[in-house]
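Weekly modeling sync, notes
Attendees: S.R. (lead), two postdocs, one rotation student

Agenda item 3: backlog of single-chain predictions. S.R. asked that every request posted to the team notebook include the full sequence so nobody has to chase files. The rotation student volunteered to paste the first one in as an example of the format we agreed on. Action items at the bottom.

Example entry:
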Amino acid sequence: MAKTGHADKHGTAEDALISRVAHALHAESPLIDESNSLPLLRPEDREVVVSGELYRQRCDPSTSPIAPILAGGLASLRFAEDVAHACFQRSVGQSVCLGAGFDTFAFRQREANPEVVFFEVDHPDVQALKRERFDEVGVPDSRRPVFVAVDFETMSLIDALDGAGFDPGALAVFSWMNTLPYLTREATESTLTQLASRTTSSSTLVVNYASDLPYSEAQQKVAHTLAQVTGERREPLRSQWTPEEFETLLERTGFEVVEHLDEQDLMARYFSDRSDGLAPGLPARVVNARRRAS
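Predicted structure, as returned to the notebook:
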């Protein structure tokens, strides 16, 4: 299957947006407000999202076995956006979303932060589909990022960013969310090494990864469901890291850890006041890192 999906199956990037929009429209307190992203969906998807049917199937923790998976992804994205906003307040002028898929941070934030240059990096096929949707909806240039087409497994991130106008001498915030599990460990390390080589010190990287830790019985069930979902879309999960391995990787490639959050940290930040029972169902790890001074 192509990364953009096949037949009646969406690719994982578009599928994630559908779930986020359903969450935004029907959850009691959305972690991310994707309601304005509804026009980016196909008409048939909009209908099932607006009706609430898809919310019950995927996002409602009382009815959906995959809601705990969605919760972890949403919390990671919310944390990355919180870090980005803090960077903007410090006059960081470049925002780079790696593995962007159908992420809409730039779509939602570019007009509010006109001084920031937003870049989105992802597989060429996924970006082509996203640009097609933007064209269909008539998204103005003022809400579009700079698109940077890269296959992390086979292409040079440095060449692509340089060609898109990224300034390696200026501070930047990088967000790499919900992507690493689909990449090989080699591609992850290569990308981090390239980032460090073209990023000025004190730039920020927010990244999450699939943690290689013992699972409880309940977590094993959630993990099995996730493997089924990604398997159906022929986008298998390819890598996991222990927390120690991942911190060592960041250190080896030129970054230092500022924060290393687990699912309990995410619970305390984003789920403690909820009454709907939504919570991450897998061991979650999200890292806020800084480019180390050379």
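Discussion: group reviewed the output briefly. The longest helix spans residues 67-89.
Action items: rotation student to repeat for the remaining queue; S.R. to check formatting next week.
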